Automatic annotation (TrEMBL):
Top-rank lineage group of the source organism: Bacteria
Signal peptide: 1-23
Name the record gives this protein: Porin
Stretches assigned to coiled coil: 54-81
Listed Low complexity bias regions: 438-453
Keywords, sorted A to Z: Coiled coil, Signal
Taxonomic path: Bacteria, Pseudomonadati, Pseudomonadota, Alphaproteobacteria, Sphingomonadales
Region Disordered: start-end pairs: 438-459
Organism whose genome encodes this protein: Sphingomonas sediminicola
Gene3D superfamilies for this protein: Porin
Amino acid sequence: MTRKFVIAALLAGTAVFAAPAQAAAQEAPAAQEPTAPDASDATADATIANTNQVDDLQAKIELLQAQVEALQESLEGVKKQQAKAVPSWKGGPEFADKDTGFTFKPKGFAQFDTGYVGFPDGDERRGTVSGLNFQNLGFNSRARRLVFGAEGTLPGRFGYKVEFNFAQGTVDYEDIILTYDFEKAPLQVSVGNFYPYSSLETMTSSRLGSMLERASFTDAFNYNRRLGIGLQFSDKATDSYLVQAGIFSTPINDASFTRTGWQASLRALYTPTLGSTRLHVGANFQHRSNSQESLGAQYRTRPLTQITDQRFIDTGTLASSGDDTLGVEFAAIHKSLHVAAEAQKVWVRNTFTAAELAATNADPNDNDVATGTALNGNPSFWADISSWATSSPARPAPTRVASGIARRCSSRGTTAAGAPCRSTAASTMSILATALTAAPPTPRRSTSTAASSWVFRPA
């Protein structure tokens, strides 16, 4: 019992001493807690809060900058679209997209003729006399040309030109051309319906000529647009030379399926500048073959106007397989004065005698059909034209064309009966025309992608 009491007393004493020590250990931390917040903690919190605000502001600034840049890009795009939509003026409105190389320029012009065509004793004659219909002479007016179209460029160095003539209540084709211009070579290729490379008068646009009409030989020698392909070599830097060559079929409005007629053309120009004078020297050659189903050609011309359909010079249809044409041309521009002259000669090739004509048409082994008058020889025709214009007040400037027309006969040209080729069978024709204009001419390069030559336009 004594042992149990002693142990119990010892355990009780240990508990007494342990309890105060543990209570003191628990009261010590409570006594050390501060009654005010720590200054370092407040600074850290403020720094963190400020950093968050700066980050938010920086993010907002960056967002606003991105929005401004996007708006600027959109605005630049709108400006570019507006620039593309607003046409420039180059003799007419032109829409252009320089980035893609696309341009579109609508064009058009109208020409009207009014005049009088007389003939000796014409008022006393009625109907058709000696092949001339006097009812179609006298006073008349008509729409000469009502042309509408467009021209421009396409991406890839292509060009185009399309024109339609609506005069006389019908639709006729003018230039229908697609071109390709080589970037690193002096070469341009043209495909479509355009004038074969021939005389200066033919290559000059009807809008830019000094006279009311082209020279009569362009009508007499049948210089018309044809379907074909042409090559053009030129000095693109100084414009000092031009060489054109092409091969052509029949006109685009030939609706027949016997389009066997064809033509080859060659033209070369040298256009140097000597001081203040620009010169133009050139030559051209054409080889034409008539259609197999219609081996014949007719050479005729109107009296320097389109207000009548009567021809005072007409060979009738000559039975032949084709012809060859050689021409020379000259022009010069010096300040307000320009002069131009050219000559053309046609050699009718492989005419048919009466026996050959009958034998050809009776041959069942081919489709050759000779038509027209049989001849015992190959006739030839020639024509020349000269013109000059100045604005000098010392010389009055009439605007009408004065002309002289003469017919001559070649010793080689006779009919099948052996008679000399007089009147409508004339084998040689000379046409001379001169004119003055009231305004000084300005040299203007031809805009046609099919033909490029110096033309003279009143300023």
